[in-house]
Amino acid sequence: TPEQAARMKKLQEQEKRQKVEFRKRMEQEVSQFIQATGEPRRRFQPMNKIERSILHDVAEVAGLTSFSFGDDEDSRYVMVFKKEFAPSDEELDAYRRGEEWDPARAEERRRLRELAAQQEEAELERGPTPPGPPNDYKDKYRHLIGSDAAKAAARTMEANKAYGCVPVANKRDTRSIEEAMNEIRAKKRLRQAGGE
User: Fold this and answer.
1) Residue 52 lies in a domain
2) 40 located within any domain
3) Which residues lie in Basic and acidic residues bias regions (predicted)?
4) Does the CA dihedral 136-142-143-145 come out positive or negative?
5) 171 torsion bin: left (phi>0), alpha (psi -120 to 50), beta (else)
6) DSSP 8-state assignment for residue 170
């Protein structure tokens, strides 16, 4: 009916107006954020999908990095970062888990991981690992290959850099293709001339 169509049109215009107003408000907030010197990132209130997409667009136009976080649609929110303070993967993971990002704690965790990696490396260098299956093929063929032949081979093994290419020295025929073709044509001419 015409009334429904008019009502629908009015609703659409109202939605469009709201989107335009929302975008203007976000542009102002993003502009304030850019001018705020001591603020590397800003977290916005949870908002719906359309509002989040508008905010992401505003951030992109302003040259900022933005991400959405939160599990369910009602609590999903946007965080905007200044380019020079773009978040690390660890920082993003913390936000995805719903945790606050603490650079000092992250640095401590990184140091602990480094320490664990160094200890693991030291253990590997310290000595052999506990023996595997009782009938290891290396033991079975030790009299043939020796005890550290495999390690030595692994160290010395190097890819053949010229694999698939024949070195010039190994070529019997050093003529170019043109020279070879000219020679063949000359022999053919001689044969034809001799046959006539």
Assistant:
1) yes
2) yes
3) 93-114
4) positive
5) beta
6) G
Q: What digits encode the pLDDT tens for the residues 30-50?
A: 999 988 888 888 889 999 999
pTM reported for the whole predicted model:
0.50
Q: Is 36 contained in some domain? A: yes
Count of all residues that appear for the chain in the document: 196
Fill in the DSSP letter of residue 169: G
Number of domains in the chain: 1
Judged by DSSP in three states, 157 sits in coil
User: What pLDDT digit, counting tens, does each position of 2-28 carry?
Assistant: 889 999 999 999 999 999 999 999 999
Report if residue 41 sits inside a domain: yes
Cα 80 from Cα 49, distance rounded (Å): 16
The sheet with strand 65-69 has its strands ordered as: 41-43, 77-81, 65-69
- For tokens 């693991």, name the residue: 120
Give the pLDDT confidence score for residue 163 in this predicted structure.
62
Range of the domain at 48: 2-87
Residues paired with residue 43 on neighbouring β-strands, in sequence order: 79
Residue ranges in the chain modelled with pLDDT below 70: 103, 127-141, 143-174, 196
Distances in whole angstroms, Cα of residue 172 to Cα of each of 11, 23, 168, 180: 86, 76, 9, 13
